[in-house]
Amino acid sequence: MKKHTNEKLKLAFQELYRKIILVSAIIAIGAIALVYFMVDPSLSAFKKDKPETEIVTIPTREDDFDKIENGIHLRTGFVEAPGMMETVQNCTNCHSSKLVIQNRMDEERWKSTIKWMQETQNLWDLGENEEVIINYLVTNYPPSKKGRREVLTDIEWYQLEE
Question: What are the alphabetically sorted keywords of the record (predicted)?
Answer without folding.
Answer: Membrane, Transmembrane, Transmembrane helix
